[in-house]
Amino acid sequence: MSRSGFDYAAGDLFGEIYLAEEKEAPRRLPLRAYMPGVLLCATAALAAGFLARAYEFPLILLGLLIGLALSFMADDERTGPGLDFLSRHALRAGIVLLGLQVTFVQVGALGLPTAVGLLTVMFVAMLAAVMAARIFGQQSEAGVLAGGATAICGASAALALYGVIGRDRLDQARFSVTLVGVALASALAIAAAPILATTLGLTDAQAGFLIGATVHDAGQAIGGAYGYSDAAGQSGTIVKLARVALLAPVVALVALWLGRRGGGGTSRIPLPWFILGFLAVLAVNSAVAMPDRVAQVGLDLSKALLLLAVTATAIRSRLGLLLETGWRALMPIALASLASLAAGLAVAVTLIT
Predict the structure, then answer these.
(1) Which of these, 144, 95, 174, lies nearest to 254 by C-alpha position?
(2) Which of 214, 166, 158, 165 has its CA nearest to residue 191?
(3) Number of domains within the chain
(4) Which helix (H) or strand (E) holds 284?
(5) Most buried one in 41, 94, 121, 259, CB count within 10 A?
(6) The domain containing residue 12 runs over which residues?
(7) Poorest-confidence range of 132-141, 204-213, 264-273?
(8) How many helices (H) and strands (E) does the chain have?
C-alpha cells in the first residue's frame, strides 16, 4: 500500500477511520506487524530523551524534530501499523494519566482573584490565536488549536484538541506546525517570564502566577517557578495545575462549537473517551491519597506515552506539506503566546498580592 493510501485508510491521528468508504473492515494484524513502527518510534524517542537530558533541551520539541527528520521512513509501509498504533493509543493513555498531576483541592486553593485572573489570561490567549488565524488566512480550527495549546498545557492540550477537531477539518501538516510552534513558544516563555518577574521586582506570588499562567509545559512552568523562589514555586504549581485541570472543559466546549458549526446547531461532536478518562483519574486522585511513588510512576509514564505519540505523529507527517504551510501557520501560536504573557503580567500586577 502506498503512503497516501495508508494515510487515507488510517484516518487522522486518533483513528477516525472512514469506514463508510471502505468495502470491508480492516483485518486484525498480528503483533509482529506493529513492531517496525513501534521500534522506530521508540528509538527516536529514546534519542530525544538522551539529548534532552544531556543538553537541557525541551523533550517534546526534540521528539518532534527527530520525528520530522525521520518522516521519510513512513514511506515504508511496514512502519505504518506501529506508527498509527502509537499515535492513537499512546496518546489516549498519556492524556488519561495526566489526571494524576492535579486534584480538585489544588484547583480550589487558587482563590477567587487568582482564578478570575487565570481564566482571563486563558481567554485572551485563545482569542488572540483565533484572531491571528483570521488575519493571516488560516482556518478557525487552526486558531482554536493554537489558542488551546497556549492556554492550557502545550503539546498535550494540542493532542487532545486535535482529537475532536480531526484531520478532516485541519490537515496533519498544520497540526505538526502547531506542535513545533507551541514547543518553541514554551521554551521562550520559560526564559522570558522569570526575567520579567525579576526586572519588575514582582513578589513571589506575582512571579509564581506569571510563570504558572504563561509557560505551556507543566514541568518547565513548575521548575521555573521554583527556580525563582520556593514561595513562587508553590504559587506557580497551583496555577499551572489548574490550567491542566481545565483541559477537559475546554475540549468539551470546542466539541460543542464544532458541532454547531457543522450541523446548524443540532449536530454534536462526541467527547473523546480519553477526556472522560482524564476526569475519572483526576477524581480518583482527588478522593484517594495516592502514594508518592505511584503518582510519580504514573506521571513519568504519561510523559513517555505522550512523547511516543508526538514522535509517531511527526514521523507520519509529510515534510513537504509541512514546509509549504509557511510562516503564517506559526502566527496564531506566536500572537497567542505574546498575548498570554502580556495578560499574565497585567493580572499579576493588578490582581495578585
Answers:
(1) 144
(2) 214
(3) 1
(4) helix 273-287
(5) 41
(6) 3-350
(7) 264-273
(8) 18, 0
pLDDT tens digits, one per residue of 205-243: 999 999 999 998 777 788 888 888 888 988 888 898 889
Asked if 130 and 140 count as a contact pair (C-beta separation under 8 A), the reply is: yes
C-alpha cell at 351: 490582581
Distance CA 12, CA 153 (A): 22
Nearest to 329 by CA among 341, 344, 342, 317: 317
What is the C-alpha to C-alpha distance for residues 314 and 83, in angstroms, rounded to an integer? Answer: 10
What span, in angstroms and rounded, lies between the C-alpha atoms of 347 and 117?
6
Length of the chain: 353
Q: How far is CA 343 from the centre of its chain?
A: 21
Q: How far is CA 269 from CA 57, 152, 166, 263, in A?
A: 37, 21, 11, 10
Per-residue pLDDT reduced to its tens digit, 281-322? 888 988 888 888 888 888 889 889 989 988 988 888 776 666
What sign for the dihedral angle of Cα 71, 76, 79, 81?
positive
Q: How many Cα atoms sit within 13 Å of 182 on the Cβ side?
A: 31
From CA 84, how far away is CA 221, in angstroms rounded?
A: 31
The C-alpha atoms of residue 307 and residue 352 are separated, in whole angstroms, by: 35
pTM: 0.77
Distances (CA, A) of 16 to 19, 78, 164, 192, 206: 9, 21, 10, 39, 43
Q: Distance between alpha carbon 266 and the CA centroid of its chain, in Å?
A: 29
Q: Contact, 25 vs 32, CB < 8 A?
A: no
Residue recorded with cell 512552568: 221
Helices (H), 56-111: 59-69, 80-85, 91-97, 104-108
How far is it, in rounded angstroms, from Cα 4 to Cα 125? 35
Cell 506508527, residue? 83
Pairwise CA distance, residues 67 & 271, whole Å: 29
Q: How far apart are CA 332 and CA 142, in angstroms?
A: 8
